[in-house]
Input
Amino acid sequence: MSGNQKRSRRRGTSSSALRSAPAGGRFGQASLLLLSAALMAACSRKEENLAAMPFFDDFNRAEFGPHWSGDPVWRIQDGEVTVAGAQNRPLWLRASLPDDSVIELTARSESPDGDIKFEIYGNGRDHASGYILIFGGWKNSISCIARLDEHGADRQELARPGMVEPGRSYRMKVVRRDKVLKWYVDGKLLLDYYDSEPLRGPGHDRFAFNDWAARLFFDDLRVRAATPQDP
Output
């Protein structure tokens, strides 16, 4: 199965409320300057405490700390991230992913349903705001890479029941270079995905662990910029 097929997507357009507003003379200009300054200050506050790249986390501690944000359902247990029943409330890494990146992690499901899930190039707040990668989803029957909608018709999928063995740890590696995502599991290519309009930049630059109902464990997350030597 290959994802190297172009997809045509209509990109949304945006309009600014300021475009139709009257200039307002000197006072209007002053108000705009104050508004711009306030927005810049808010953005600066928002970006505080971001983790630097390259990034590594082995979770050998009791609390997540400032580089992670998410629902209290997520916790650290015996040096691993663990969760059950998050219902698509991700645990977000507060770090900007490189446009071209290599992301590695260890994952395990203790459920016969499998359903190992994580997200890349999201917005840091919302599920399905980037690419969703699911290993053994839909009752351990389908694995997929999806863009903005895990049920979308443009997802790349592999239908193979029972891919996830409960209790087995898998080492996963995702390489994104330019318009192509490649997902490896235990050193073997599982799926690739070609995106003619890659998600990147502010609003599409965050990583998250995710979960629906299964008891999952994650560990040893490593993120770095991709190089020409990466496959």
